[in-house]
Each structure stands twice: as C-alpha cells, then as structure tokens.
Design brief:
346 residues, alpha+beta, Ribosomal Protein S5, domain 2, Alpha-Beta Plaits, 2 domains, four-stranded antiparallel beta sheet, 12 helices, 10 strands, 23% strand, binds cytidine-5'-monophosphate
Length: 346
Amino acid sequence: MRVTVRSFAKINLGLRIGTLRPDGYHELRTVYQTIALHDLLRVQVTRGSGIEIRCNDPRVPTNESNTCYRIIERAMAVLKARGHVVIEIEKRLPVQGGLGGASANAISALLALEHGFKKELPGPEKLRIAAEVGSDLPLFLVGGTVLGAGHGEEVYPLSDLPPTPCVVATPEIGISTPKAFADWDGLCGEPGSAREGPGLDRTDAKLTASAPSDRMLMFGRSVAAWLSGLSQRKTKSGQALSGVPVSRGRGRAETPLLDLVRTGIENDFEQVVFPQYPELRDVKRVLKRAGAAYASLSGSGSAIFGLFGTRAVAQQAAVRLRKAGVAAVATTTLTRPQYWKGIFDC
Ligand code: C5P
C-alpha cells in the first residue's frame, strides 16, 4: 500500500511558560493554530520489516531519532502489524522553525499508516504514543484552534478561529527548543523559582508580583474571554465573523481577530529569543507596520507570523519582507474541518 498525505504546520497564538517540573519539562499554556503551509509525506508498506525514512532535506535525520520513525515503531507494535515501512518526506517547512514540522510529520505518517492498513488505534492510545514522542504532537490529532496545557501535550479543541489570512516569515535561523527553555530559566533566576520573566517586569508592574501559576491562570482567563466572544458571535450570526475590523454604529464591532489582540496574550519565548536574534524583532515590526493585527514568534522560533484582516494586505506584507531579504509567504489559518479534509485530499 502507498498513501500520500499533507502534514500541516502550526503557529502559537500566545505561549506562556510556567515552572520547571521535576520531570524536566516546563508547565505551558498556549493556543495552537493549524495553518495551510505543509510538507508532503508518502508512506508505503512492502514485504519485510523495518522502517526507512527518506527526505529531500539533508538536515532531517533519517535514523531512529526521526519523529516519524519513533511513532511508526510504536504504532506497528500496538497494531501488531508487519511490513517494511518507507516514509518519504518532501520537506517544505523549515527545520527547527517553531512551526511544528517534525511533530506534524509524525502524526501524518501515523494517519497514513492507519489509512493504509484500514485499522485505527484507539483515540486515547494514539494521544498517548503521540505525547511520548514529543510535546507538540498531540495537537495535530485535533487540528484547528487548540488549547495546549501540561507541557503542551494536553490538548483541548477550542472554538475555531475563522480562516484568517496569515503571513509566515521563516528566517534562516534554527533555534533549539530545549536551549530556549534553558535560557528562559536563566532569565527567571533559579529553575523552578517563583521569580518572573524579565519582559513582564518591564511591561506590567502588576504581573511582576505574581507567581508563575497566577500567570498561567491569567492566560487561561484571557483565552476563555476571547473564546466566549467567538462563540457568542457564532450563536448570533450562525457563523463566526472574520476579516477587517468593521465599525457598526453601536460600537461593539470587534472581529475575532481584534478580540484576540485585546486579550494581550504573548509568547514568552520572545523575551529570550529576540535579544539573541534582534533581526527577528525587526521582522515582527515589519509585519505590524504592514498591517498585521497580531504578530508573534511561533513556538521558540525562528518563524514569525502575522495575522491580517484581508488576503491582499497579507500578500503585500509578504512581498515587503521578501524585498527586505526575509523568506515569507502569505497563507491562511485552517479550521478543524479544513485541516482534516486537507490531510488526505492530495
Ligand atoms: O517534548 P519535546 O521532545 O518536544 O521536548 C524537547 C525538550 O524541550 C524537552 O526534553 C525539554 O527539555 C524541553 N521542553 C520543556 N518544556 C516543555 C516542552 C519541552 O522544557 N513544555
């Protein structure tokens, strides 16, 4: 059997880092959002045994450390399936880019394998093996707009952000996520201490006094407030609104995008990554000046994204970045139904 699937990327709409836990992970709250940028995967099972990874990008490991290898090894054991599995990855997403490329590849490989064998792992088992392979994998078993908790592996489907024009800039900088977490710890004082992150000291005096757990709680509240706005709008109009801010006489004219901006959710990694790579801060500035309602580092970077009111403005922003020598593409966010339809529709 041979199955071809898309492997979509994600961005993080805000990311809050909490305390370092005894298991070596950091407590995390984030809103993941799947987007239309993707890699392509071809999964083939022939006679024999073993797992073979092929990739057009030499930076991608093709040994047992590859996330696809690790999840397929586990899935074959649980499914009690036999065969020689060949996974070809056509890499289009950046490596170590903060877009979840390797994690998405693993989930798409798993879905392709299930499709090929016409057998499905039970949902909880799938989530368990996904989380074993990496914190960023389970979100790709949900898709759309997803709340991430725990160390990022606890995932909850949220009310979808309507398809929103988006620009993703991918500077040629690879950032190690474990190192970014370690840098955050360095900035916060001793690992696990209750001291605050540095940028918050500068930007919000009230937050300075709060413990990491309070900051996580506030993140949750902001997201909940944003979502309740989204679902109210859905109930009123039958479907959520998207697009440019519109003023409608009586005053309450927010779009979901504007509501998101108002929550003030940010990505804590910016505070350790931007000082090391000031050019990334500049990319964010360009996106904002080009009309982004919301712009942020994705994950630990180095991808930076901006959300826009219209496709035309997003495309102009991408052109502006490319003229400045930064790789950038205009794309769109994907709702959950679009995500699932797009995986096998190729
Ligand atoms: O789960 P994943 O393999 O993506 O994590 C890689 C590393 O990143 C972990 O070993 C840990 O050092 C760090 N990490 C963390 N806190 C998280 C997620 C990852 O410290 N929430």
